[in-house]
Specification:
The complex is a heterodimer of chains A (297) and B (418).
Chain A: H1 2-29, H2 36-53, H3 61-79, H4 88-107, E1 138-141, E2 144-147, H5 148-169, H6 172-182, H7 184-189, H8 194-217, H9 226-241, H10 246-266, H11 269-286
Antiparallel strand pairs in A: 1-2
Chain B: H1 5-30, E1 35-41, H2 48-67, E2 76-82, H3 87-100, E3 105-108, H4 112-124, E4 128-131, E5 144-146, H5 151-155, H6 158-166, E6 170-176, H7 179-194, E7 198-205, H8 213-221, E8 226-230, H9 235-245, E9 255-257, H10 262-268, E10 277-280, H11 289-301, H12 311-330, H13 335-342, E11 346-349, E12 352-356, E13 363-364, E14 368-372, E15 378-383, E16 405-406, E17 409-410, H14 412-417
Parallel strand pairs in B: 1-2, 1-3, 3-4, 4-5, 6-7, 6-8, 8-9, 9-10
Antiparallel strand pairs in B: 10-14, 11-12, 12-13, 14-15, 16-17
Classes of the chains: A mainly alpha (297), B alpha/beta (418).
Chain lengths: 297, 418
C-alpha cells in the first residue's frame, strides 16, 4: 500500500515540477506559454551538452540549466510575448511557433546539419544522460523499498515550491508580481515597473522548467519532442488547481498523481490515464475556475 | 532586385542542369539506360531517427551494386522520397513513385502504419514493395516482399530458450499499446503454453508514454520470474531506467525484449541493460567477417565512425540485393517478373544466409538471442542452427505444414477456423 502512495506522490511531484513554472507564467501573466515544454527539453539538453562538452556532473547541471532556460525565457518575453499581453489566443499561437522553432533548432543542430557539420549531443536522435550511481537503486524505509531517484525528484520539487512561495509571498518583487496578477494597470499606476517585473517572472518560470528538464533527463528519454506531452499535463494541473493559485497547483498535482497511481495499481496505466482526464473534465465542469481561485478585479 | 517569372524559370533550369551534371557523367560512363527504383522512408519527423538509417543502408546497397557494374549491366538510379513520419504523406509519395514515375519497385517503410497506407497503391497498380522491418505478421500481399522478422522468427526460439536455459516459468508480458506488441503477446502466450510456462500479467502502456512507476511496481509485486517486453520506441529507455531505479536486477528478473536494439541501449546507457536479453535475427556484434566489413562499410558510407547497425537496417541493405538477383533471374524489371524472380531467391547477408519464401514472400531468417554487455553490444548467447521459415499467421494457428498464406494468396477459410 505504501509503495502505491509513494508512486502517486512521485507522479504528483513530476506533474508539479512541470506545472510550477506554468503556474507562474500563466497564472501571473495570463500567457499561455506553449513553449514551456520546450524549456523542459532545453533543460534536458543542457544536461546532455554540459556532460559532453564541459564534463559537468548531473547535479552541477541544475544551476546551469536554470540559467540557460531563464535567459532563453527572458529573450522570448522581450522579443515575442511582450508585444502580446492581453491577447490570450495570440500568445498561444505565438509561443507555439516559438516551441516549433526551438524544437527544430535542436533537431537540425541550429541549421549546421545542412552543411554536414554535426554537434555531439544535438540532432534528431535519442540522447544519453548519465546519472550518479548512488541515485539509481533503492533505500528501504519502513520495510518498503523506495526509489532514490523519485525521492530526489520529490525533494527538489518541494524545495522549488517553497522557494517559489517565499519569492511570491515574502519578498518585495513577489508583492509586485501579485499586484500585477490582480490588476496590471492599477499596479502600473502605483509605480510598479510592469515590463521589468513581467520579464523577470517569465524568466523565473522558464528557469523552473529548465530544472524540471534536468530531472526528467535522468529517467526519461531525451529527444527533441520530449516536451510536447509534458506541457499538456502541466496545463491540466494549473487549470484544475485554479489559475494563479500556487497552493491550488500543489494540491491539484498531488490529487491527480494519487488518482493516477491508485487506478494504475488496481487496473492498468491506460485506464488510469483516462480516469485522470475524466476527473479533470468533471472538475472543470463543476468548478470552472479550478479548485482554488481568487476573484481578480 | 526584381525577378520576373521568365528569368526565374531560366535560373531554375540552369540550377537544375548544374545539379544533374554529376549524375549525367556517371550515366554516360555506364553507357546504358538506368533502372529506376523508388526509396521511400521518413527523412523528417519523429521517425526519421530510425528511418534515415534505413534510407542510408538502402542507398549504400544501390551504390555498391552500381560500383560492381549495376543490374544486367545497367546502373540503378534511386529516387528518394520523404514519407515525413506520416502515413498520409507515405500514401501520396507512393502514388507519385508508382503512378507518376512508373516505378515497378520501391524500397521503404518502417512502421506498419506506413506500410498499410501504401499497400493499396502497390496492389492497385501492381508494383512491388520491399519492406525491411520486423512486424506483427497477419498480412499476405503478393505485392510486398517482407525481409524483416515476423513473430515466430523472434519468439519461437526465445521463449523455449528462456524456459530451458534460464529456468523461468512465470512471465510478465509488457508492451506498448498498439497492434505489434498485442500480436506479439498472442504468439508469446501460445509458446508459453507449449513450453509449460505461464504468464502472470499482460499489460500495456500508451505508445510514447514514459511514466513506468506503476508498471514496474506491479512487475515487482507480481511474483513473475521474467519480463517479456514488447515495448517500442522512446519509452524503452524510461522502462529500463525505472526497472533499475526500483531495485530490480536482470540476473534475478531479466527483461527479455523483442524490440530493444543497439540504438535504445546507447540512449539509456548500457549500465541499465547489462544482463538483459533481446531476440533479433541480426545484431551488430555478429562475429563474422562479412558482418564486420558490412559495419565498416556502413560507417564509412554515413561518415560516422560510431554509427550503429541494427536488424531493420541490415534488412534494408540485403533486400536490394535480393531484388537485383530477382531482376537478373527474370531478365526483366516489371513487377510480375520481379515477383516471379524473387520467390526462393537466396543471398548471403551480413546476418547469414537468407531465402525468400516461395509461398508468402517473407524471408527465412536465423533467430538469435543476445545478452547485453557493458559496452552496449549484444553477446550472442544462442543462435538457431538454420534459418527459420517465416509464418505470418502463427498467432492464428499457422504451422509449417499448414500454411495460410501461399503463392495463391491468403486462404481465409483457415483463418476463420482458428
Amino acid at each position: 500500500m505504501l509503495d502505491v502512495i509513494f508512486i502517486g506522490l512521485s507522479l504528483g511531484s513530476i506533474l508539479l515540477l512541470v506545472a510550477l513554472g506554468l503556474a507562474i507564467t500563466y497564472g501571473a501573466m495570463g500567457v499561455i506559454n506553449m513553449a514551456h515544454g520546450e524549456m523542459v527539453m532545453v533543460g534536458a539538453y543542457t544536461t546532455v551538452m554540459g556532460a559532453l562538452w564541459l564534463k559537468l556532473g548531473f547535479l552541477a547541471s541544475l544551476p546551469l540549466a536554470f540559467a540557460v532556460t531563464a535567459l532563453l525565457g527572458w529573450a522570448i518575453e522581450r522579443i515575442v510575448v511582450r508585444r502580446l499581453y492581453g491577447r490570450l489566443l495570440d500568445t498561444l499561437l505565438a509561443t507555439w511557433g516559438v516551441a516549433i522553432l526551438i524544437q527544430q533548432a535542436v533537431r537540425l543542430e541550429f541549421g549546421l546539419s545542412f552543411f554536414g557539420i554535426h554537434i555531439r549531443g544535438l540532432g534528431p536522435g535519442l540522447q544519453n544522460v548519465t546519472v550518479p550511481e548512488w541515485m539509481t537503486g533503492v533505500v528501504t524505509i519502513g520495510g518498503d523499498q523506495v526509489n532514490i531517484y523519485r525521492l530526489f525528484i520529490i525533494v527538489v520539487t518541494l524545495a522549488l515550491t517553497v522557494l517559489t512561495w517565499v519569492l511570491m509571498y515574502r519578498t518585495d518583487i513577489g508583492i509586485q508580481i501579485r499586484a500585477i496578477m490582480r490588476n496590471p494597470r492599477m499596479a502600473a499606476a502605483c509605480g510598479i515597473d510592469v515590463d521589468r517585473v513581467n520579464a523577470l517572472t517569465f524568466a523565473y518560470g522558464s528557469g523552473l522548467a529548465g530544472v524540471a528538464g534536468v530531472m526528467m533527463s535522468g529517467f526519461k528519454t531525451v529527444f527533441p519532442d520530449m516536451g510536447t506531452s509534458m506541457v499538456v499535463d502541466g496545463f491540466m494541473v494549473v487549470v484544475v488547481g485554479g489559475v494563479g493559485s500556487l497552493i491550488g497547483s500543489v494540491l491539484a498535482a498531488g490529487l491527480l498523481g494519487q488518482v493516477n497511481g491508485g487506478v494504475a495499481a488496481v487496473t492498468n496505466d491506460i485506464l488510469a490515464r483516462a480516469v485522470v482526464f475524466g476527473l479533470v473534465i468533471l472538475i472543470i465542469i463543476v468548478k470552472p475556475t479550478g479548485l482554488f481561485s481568487f476573484k481578480s478585479r | 532586385m526584381t525577378l520576373d517569372r521568365r528569368s526565374l524559370l531560366k535560373v531554375g533550369a540552369l540550377g537544375a542542369t548544374a545539379l544533374a551534371a554529376p549524375g549525367l557523367l556517371t550515366r554516360g560512363a555506364m553507357a546504358a539506360d538506368p533502372i529506376r527504383v523508388g526509396v521511400l522512408f521518413s527523412l523528417t519527423g519523429g521517425l526519421s531517427i530510425i528511418e534515415k538509417s534505413l534510407a542510408d543502408a538502402t542507398m549504400m546497397a544501390i551504390a555498391e551494386i552500381n560500383a560492381a557494374g549495376g543490374v544486367m549491366g545497367r546502373p540503378v538510379e534511386a529516387v528518394l522520397e520523404d514519407g515525413a513520419s506520416d502515413p498520409k504523406t507515405y500514401n501520396e509519395k507512393a502514388s507519385k513513385l508508382v503512378v507518376g514515375d512508373k516505378m515497378s519497385t520501391v524500397f521503404g517503410s518502417y512502421t506498419s502504419a506506413s506500410r498499410k497506407a501504401v499497400l493499396p497503391v502497390f496492389e492497385k497498380h501492381n508494383a512491388m514493395y520491399f519492406y525491411p522491418t520486423y512486424y506483427e505478421g497477419f498480412e499476405c500481399s503478393r505485392n510486398v516482399v517482407y525481409t524483416g522478422a515476423v513473430p515466430n522468427q523472434q519468439l519461437s526460439n526465445f521463449i523455449p530458450w528462456i524456459v530451458k536455459n534460464l529456468g523461468k516459468k512465470k512471465f510478465f508480458i509488457v508492451g506498448s499499446n498498439y497492434i505489434y506488441p498485442r500480436e506479439m503477446a498472442k504468439v508469446c502466450k501460445i509458446l508459453m503454453k507449449q513450453n509449460g510456462a505461464e504468464y502472470v500479467a499482460d499489460e500495456y502502456l500508451e505508445l510514447g508514454h514514459s511514466e513506468w512507476g506503476s508498471m514496474v511496481n506491479k512487475i515487482k509485486t507480481s511474483g513473475c520470474d521474467a519480463v517479456l517486453s514488447n515495448v517500442v520506441g522512446d519509452s524503452v529507455v524510461a522502462f529500463y531506467r525505472e526497472f533499475k531505479n526500483q531495485g530490480l536486477t536482470h540476473d534475478k528478473l531479466p527483461i527479455c525484449a523483442t524490440v530493444t536494439s543497439e540504438i535504445e541501449i546507447a540512449a539509456m546507457g548500457p549500465e541499465y541493460a547489462v544482463g538483459s536479453y533481446t531476440s533479433f535475427p541480426y545484431f551488430m556484434a555478429i562475429d563474422t567477417d562479412r558482418n564486420k566489413k558490412f559495419v565498416e562499410r556502413y560507417r564509412a558510407y554515413v561518415k560516422d565512425p560510431k554509427a550503429v547497425t541494427h536488424h531493420a537496417l541490415e534488412s534494408s541493405y540485403f533486400q536490394v540485393f535480393l531484388w537485383k538477383q530477382a531482376v537478373e533471374k527474370a531478365k526483366d524489371t516489371a513487377a510480375d517478373a520481379v515477383r516471379a524472380g524473387v520467390r526462393g531467391q537466396e543471398f548471403d547477408a551480413p546476418n547469414g544466409h537468407v531465402t525468400v519464401d516461395a509461398d508468402n514472400l517473407h524471408t527465412y531468417l536465423t533467430p538469435r538471442i543476445a545478452q547485453w554487455q557493458a559496452d552496449g553490444q549484444g553477446k550472442i548467447v544462442d543462435a538457431y542452427p538454420n534459418p527459420v521459415q517465416p509464418l505470418p499467421y502463427v498467432a492464428y494457428g499457422e504451422t509449417d505444414t499448414n500454411l495460410f498464406c501461399t503463392a495463391k494468396g491468403l486462404d481465409a477459410s483457415k483463418l476463420k477456423k482458428s
